[in-house]
Amino acid sequence: MTPPDSLPAVPAHDTAPRTGTGAPRRQRPPFIRPVRIGRDAGALAGIYQPVAEPRSETAVLICNPFGQEAIRAQRSLRVVAERLSRQGVPSLRFDYFGTGDSPGEDGSGHLTRWRQDILLADVHLRQLSGCQATIWMGLRLGATLALQAAELIGDLPRPRRIILWEPVLDGEQYLGHLARMNEFWTRQRNVTSEALGFALTTRIRRHLEAIRPDGLPLPAGSVLDLLGTQDLPGRNTFIGRCREHGVPLHDLLLESTVEWTSNTALDSQWVPDEAIAALLEICAQPAGTATKEAPWPPRLRRSSSQHGETGMDASVIPYREETLCFGPEARLIGTITQPADRPALPGSQPGLILLNAGMLPRVGPHRLNVELARTAAAQGLTAIRFDLPGLGDSGFTSSRLSHEDQTRAAIEDAMALLAATPFAPDRFLIAGLCSGADAGFQMAQNDPRIVGLFMMEPYYFPNRFSRMFRTLRRVREYGLRRAVIRIAQKLGIAGAPHASNESSALPLPAPEETVRQAPSPARFAHDLEVLLKRGVDIRLVYANTLMGRYDLRHHHHHIFSRLGQPAHFAVEMVPHTDHVFTRIEARRHLIRGMAAWLQHFQARPPAPEAEPGAA
User: Fold this and answer.
1) pTM as predicted
2) Exposure string for 161-173, b = 16+ CB within 10 A, e = fewer
3) Tell me: the pLDDT tens digits for 322-354?
4) Scanning 141, 331, 486, 533, which has its CA 20 to 30 A from the CA of 31?
5) Which residues lie below 8 Å from residue 66, measured CB to CB, with a gap of 6+?
């Protein structure tokens, strides 16, 4: 299933209006276009934002930051692309190799590869948009990569401007900041191999350490725009160097910034209006002399063969992935993952549906949903991770349905999409974290096609002793000083630390008890019992952020003991992790658990063919 980029897959059954949506409406065209950047198994995943009426000869290439910053910035970068589209400026967002929806496992990419990915994406954007000039806009490490990639352009058309939005100008300071944030959120000290759930390989560390404000390349032929606060590390040195070499640089000071390196993105997605307004103003400036359009140059073909296009043989990837638009008005965005090395036996295996966790995009916290989908494909299952209406890249429809009904309808559309694949599953499994677990649980109660639930951080029911035990656990895990600071911050006694005090800076804590419409414990037990009697295989996985050993015993005694001991029901608590399983080892534990759970669903033998002449 690899249709050309110009034809996003929209299932035919999705053109009919749903009950409760009023009179039939004319199908709207896809509001964005998922694209594949490259021509082989290593093709990158991208989202192209077209325009209805082009009013500019310039297109904008948006370069993602690194790791958790990319997850936290997804909403902001989507808003930038949408507002550019309203101004008649097309744009392209994309995932580097080994990040987001693109091929490659976490840690398999590196800065050298990602710089080549930017060059490849720029050529693709020019071909899609027909624009003769481009602007590169990068956030955090994405800005630094854009600056470095511009030095490698050679005989390619150069970007008209390079917008550096809070760039990483001092690699050693950036690594130190990542280490502090990782220690705070994961309680791991002296860990250099990961940063807030993402692999920090020796090669990446070496490349980051080489970034210095007085050593960054200053590409000729492009205007630089620097957006950041006065406290941006390395800012003054970089500005002085640009002036010394006569490089055109526009310095725009921002009054405030967002802590992009934070683990609080589950229930909040920041959209910094001040910075976005400045970005749109820069992109709206008229272009000077248009850069002459150039065909796909031999130099890039050689680079792509090493780093982008023919560097990955399809035979070494056990899955095939495709991102597409589907659902009513083609405004839902999802990525289908299918086995690449197994014959399609329609209906023999269930399909796996992976839901959003809170407000995070479909890749999941720390790319968890990507890893789970590819784990399922390795076991012969077809999976889809998609954004519910209004989340990630999906838009809202014109339906008048309630939020709950829209969620249910979107899951039904995902089922129909999986059923249309060559593997044609007629049974389905749902996996989700937090609100995703809640939505899957509610859906299973109304749809008999759902035969399995993998619920991460499902409903939690504290009692009067839970808060006391949780406080004692924090003191033991964080230490007395940090536990007191977190409690003081939650009570509003202590504010955010001053940015200049780098060594002791501690972020504000995440709201750990989010507003969830949880049923009563008795109702939860009753609904579990009904599903288990129907034969639904259920696995509950708790992190010990809220759930401690005392709470787990309490849940067993008051809820789970009512269910008996069915073989298709299990409860587990993963120690030493947080609500979103930030630690890499905790996520590996989850993936191993998912792989073992999927073995419960043995492939059904294909139905025997009827003999000729049989009645």
Assistant:
1) 0.85
2) bbbbbbbbbbbeb
3) 999 999 789 999 999 999 877 878 888 999 999
4) 141
5) 140, 141, 142, 198
